[in-house]
Amino acid sequence: MSEVEALPPGLPRMISDRYEIESLIGRGGMADVYLALDHVLSRKVAVKVLRPDTASNPMVVNRFRREAKAVAALSHPNIVAVYDTGELPATDQQRERLPFMVMEYVTGKTLKQVISQDRIDAQFAVSLIRGVSEALDHSHANNVVHRDVKPANVMVTDSGHVKLMDFGIARATDNSATMTQTAAVVGTAQYFSPEQARGEQVDFRSDIYSAGCLFYELMTGKPPFTGDSPVSVAYQHVGEIPPAPSEVAQDVDPIFDPVVAKVLSKERDDRFQSAGAFAQALENALNGIEFHEDQSTPATYTLPIYGTHDSTEPGFAAQAAPMTTEHPVFTTHDEPVETTRHRSNRGLIVLLSLIAVVAVAIASFLVIRSIQADAEKRAPLAVPDVKNLSEDDASSLLRDATFNVRVEREFNEDVDENKAARTDPASGTEVAKESTVTLYISEGSEQRVIPEDLTNQSEAAARDALRQAGLEVGKVTREDSATIPTDWVIGTSPDLGSKVKAGSEVDLILSTGKVEVPDLTGKTPDEAEEILKDQGLEKLSLSASTDTEVTDEFAPGTIVSQTPSAPGTMEQGGTITYVLAEAPAEPTPSETPSETPSESESSDDSTASESPSETPSQTPSKTPRGELPPPAKPGEGN
Predict the structure, then answer these.
(1) β-sheet with 472-479: strand ranges across
(2) Which string of b and e fits 191-210 if b means at least 16 CB within 10 Å?
(3) Can you tell me whether residue 546 is helix, strand or coil?
(4) What Cα–Cα distance (Å) separates residue 133 from each residue in 169, 188, 191, 210, 273?
(5) Are 395 and 389 spatial neighbours (Cβ–Cβ below 8 Å)?
(6) Under a CB-based contact definition with an 8 Å cutoff, are residues 588 and 594 in contact?
(7) The dihedral of CA 487, 489, 495, 501: what is its sign?
(8) Binding site, annotated residues for ATP
(9) Enzyme catalytic residues
(10) What is the pLDDT of residue 427?
(11) pLDDT tens digits along 454-488
């Protein structure tokens, strides 16, 4: 099995922490069979698991458990062994518990496949029946009747060994249990016994009859009775004698005909009383020993009517019949002939014949009634209309109509959530009773609306709201916002209020908690306030610096610079500090044309009340001749 092979929903890869499922190897009427590895004993096993569509049927579950119980009590090399049994727990995909059994893993072909591939010689056929008979003898010794012996239930291993399997309809032969169910015939029509066809209680001799049908098909290539329907086959089992195998297939030795005639007797007491006796008779026939019914009285020897006798032989005169002129056969006797016994026997034969005819008529009637009841039971029914009902009400209505229910969910634009949307098969369709009907429950509209109230919510709250709306959270990005707190939702992509498909991903846009700083240079403080208001930056505040800057680039009273500067970002609620422009001072006119530059600068910086002696730079003694005075240091004039 490939490691990536998918398993059905609800079936775990490992069962009971021991059996690892590897592959599907077969399907039956009620269960699937998987190849598995037993990790405890390191061997291959076959795990038979009841299918989910049949697990809700109590009759099927009981039959499955009965098979496990019946085979677990048997231990024989010609019977497929059962090692373990249990139940898989219910899951979201499967609400029913699934019984399982762990069996011996057998490689080979079913006898049905062997028959279909080629003709089987007498020696191989007898050896196969010997294996089946030994399995049946062991089963019967443990009071278990198989009830469904047929080619499909016999495995022939690669080495030619015979394995009997599928005890699904086996029953214990005790006095408290019967072999049939009311108005039901159990078995396969082409191989079941006349008592099974009549719906009577069966015993181990019913299995021997089925084994005889199996040998008949091995030798001739077809079962003893065939027909257009199980009903016609059942009639033949009850009232007809099958043709001898040698008449059906010319290459079959007639020595097997009396053995087959006995094993296929209509009355149980006339058949072989054990499967081993049947197999022994076949082996004797294979070795050239003819089969004869046991005789109650030995055959008597009589002298011939005609003959030549020597009258001179001693004692002959005493023994010889008297001479007569009449033909010996027609000789008349004066003594009365005893006929009472012959009349009595003739009357008994007539009475037995009448009883047989009545029995066949009753059996035929029972078979017909049983088949009619089975037909009525399996008559198709219309699937009821469950649309817009709750899941419980819809399931109950379908189960009341004898259907098995499997629930699935789907989106539906027209049906409210958690209401029944449709069934498969559709309502009104006629299907067989106990069929599985899939009930689809609506999950509402597939279109989902992105909630519009996600803005200004925390990320956790937004995630919860999206999940409740049937949506998933995609990527998370961040943008600056002047009003939304850090890590709270600004918006979504697609936009809030948009309609999207259920389960779609919605990207969240969260706030960084920062804003872009506007450029306020060249604006008056009042104009700057208006700009903040227009851009929604009311949380930012403006603060004037105590310093001013003398410049002729900006009008006095306008903002020269700001902190933080633009472009840039800052935290919400922060403060922008600005510096206002100040006009430069007007220049003072020169006093005398002959003044030196140093004297002119000194006079500009000095006040009218200062005396020449208070300015050192203006003292003639401190300035060499022919040299200009040094420039004044900043603030030196104040």
Answers:
(1) 472-479, 505-511, 489-493
(2) bbbbbbbbbbebebbbbbbb
(3) strand
(4) 18, 19, 15, 11, 12
(5) no
(6) no
(7) positive
(8) 48
(9) 148
(10) 87
(11) 888 888 898 988 988 888 899 999 888 878 888 89
Residue with the bigger pLDDT between 136 and 66: it is 136
Residue 263 amino acid letter: V
Among the listed residues 260, 132, 188, 142, the one whose alpha carbon sits nearest the alpha carbon of residue 196: 188
DSSP state of 65: H
Q: Which residues are CB-neighbours of 190 under 8 A, at least 6 positions away?
A: 150, 213, 223, 225, 226, 233
Residue 339's SS3 state is coil
CA distance 97 to 87: 6
Dig out the tokens for 435 from the structure. 């069929």
Residues 382, 398 contacting (CB under 8 angstroms): no
What span, in angstroms and rounded, lies between the C-alpha atoms of 146 and 140? 9
- Rounded distance, CA 478 to CA 607, Å? 62
Cβ neighbours of 300 (radius 10 Å): 5
pTM of the full predicted structure?
A: 0.46
CA 171 vs. chain centroid, Å, equals: 30
> Strand, helix or coil at 512?
coil
Q: Which amino acid is at 151?
A: P
The more confidently predicted of residues 492 and 543 is 492
Cβ neighbours, 10 Å, residue 284? 15
Report residue 381 as tokens. Answer: 């029914």
> For residue 395, how many C-alpha atoms fall within 13 Å in the half-sphere facing its CB?
12
Predicted local confidence at residue 154, as pLDDT = 92
Q: Domains of the chain by range and CATH?
A: 14-105 (3.30.200.20), 110-286 (1.10.510.10), 381-442 (3.30.10.20), 447-512 (3.30.10.20), 517-582 (3.30.10.20)
- pLDDT for 140 equals 92
User: How many angstroms separate the CA atoms of 574 and 125, rounded?
Assistant: 101
Q: What's CA 355's distance to the chain center, in Å?
A: 55
Q: Given its phi and psi angles, is residue 482 left (phi above 0), alpha (psi -120 to 50 degrees) or beta?
A: alpha
Residue length of the chain? 638
How would DSSP label each residue in 398-465? HHHTT-EEEEEEE--SSS-TTBEEEEESPTT-EE-TT-EEEEEEE---SEEEPPGGGTT-BHHHHHHH
What pLDDT is recorded for position 124?
92
- For the residues of 153-206, what is the DSSP string, one character each? GEEEETTS-EEE---TT-EE--TT--SSBTTB--S-TTT--HHHHTT----HHH
Q: Which residues contact 539 (CB under 8 A, 6 or more apart)?
A: 482, 483, 515, 572, 573
- For 562, the enclosing helix (H) or strand (E) is strand 559-563
Note whether 511 and 488 are within 8 A (CB).
Answer: yes
pLDDT in tens, 263-311: 999 999 999 999 999 999 999 999 999 998 763 333 333 333 333 334 3
SS3 content of the chain, % helix, strand, coil (to 5): 30, 20, 45
Please choose, from the candidates 63, 61, 83, the residue with its C-alpha nearest in 3D space to the C-alpha of residue 72.
Answer: 83
Chain-centre distance for alpha carbon 203: 38
- DSSP summary character for residue 42: T
Annotated binding-site residues read 48
